[in-house]
TrEMBL record:
Lineage: Bacteria, Bacillati, Actinomycetota, Actinomycetes, Streptosporangiales
SUPFAM superfamilies: SP0830-like (SSF160379)
Pfam families from the UniProt entry: DUF1697 (PF08002)
Protein name: DUF1697 domain-containing protein
Length: 186
């Protein structure tokens, strides 16, 4: 059976000392679940692995359960394959090549979202910051970085409590995850 490369995006781990998940333990956890070629990227809950499964939701649910059992707290997880990650990077509506990685972010969603999700926001009030929607993704341009972004804060506040999981990565991480999930010669 053929294997596929995936990225697991854990939401809200290792931020400000909360929900600590050491990356070595995350690698061991994924390996213990039967996944291959397990690697992590940075300390913020990015892992790549291979699996014979084609079911991203089942893989995410499996990892969520394993993290809760191992670390004692719940963590939302999104699992995405290389083709999707590549398509999101390729569809970026902003000039990524001319921006610093800290100025451009992608928020990945567990399911499709539309502009109605943030209908109460007036985008013009946040210029020069901007956002655009993609395939289960939101692209966010923040010239002064995410930490100083009024728009990012407003987007977070205006998000409905609808059970949709969302997790954000800067552009450097977006590009690195595409690279790490690319098929490698055997």
């Amino acid at each position: 059976m053929a294997t596929k490369a995936y990225a697991a995006l854990l939401r809200g781990v290792n931020v400000s000392g909360h929900k600590k998940v050491p990356m070595a333990e995350l690698r061991a956890l994924l390996t213990g679940l039967g996944h291959g070629d397990v690697r992590t990227y940075l300390q913020t809950g990015n892992a790549v692995f291979t699996s014979t499964s084609d079911d991203e939701q089942a893989l995410a649910a499996q990892l969520e359960q394993a993290v809760e059992e191992r670390f004692g707290f719940g963590v939302d997880v999104l699992v995405r394959g290389h083709a999707y990650l590549r398509a999101v990077a390729d569809a970026c509506p902003f000039p990524a090549a001319s921006l610093e990685g800290r100025q451009l972010h992608v928020t990945y969603f567990s399911e499709p979202v539309t502009a109605s999700r943030v209908a109460s926001l007036d985008p013009a009030a946040y210029l020069p910051e901007e956002f655009r929607f993609g395939d289960r993704a939101l692209y966010l341009y923040t010239p002064d970085g995410l930490g100083r972004s009024r728009l990012a804060e407003a987007l977070t506040r205006s998000a409905p409590a609808d059970g949709v999981t969302a997790t954000t990565r800067n552009w450097n991480t977006v590009v690195k995850l595409v690279e790490l999930t690319r098929a490698r010669p055997a």
